[in-house]
Design goal:
Blueprint lengths: L10 E10 L2 E9 L6 E10 L6 E6 L5 E2 L1
Antiparallel strand pairs: 1-2, 2-3, 3-4, 3-5
The structure holds zinc ion.
Length: 67
Amino acid sequence: MKCPKCGVQMSMIREIEQTSRREKGIKVYYRCTLCNYKVLTEEVHLDFSNGTIKIMVKPAPKASFIK
Ligand SMILES: [Zn+2]
């Protein structure tokens, strides 16, 4: 994926956040190294309750930009 502003290759970043003891959220997005432009592509939610792992993937809606 290329930055719509600069046209350079954007790097993929995974951001993991521990939302609670039993839950984790992973955000996958692309970031432009020049202008810091970010595009969120996917959000993964992990649920560790009941001794099992529940994985929920919710694709980001189109044109979901983080500023
Ligand atoms: Zn850029």
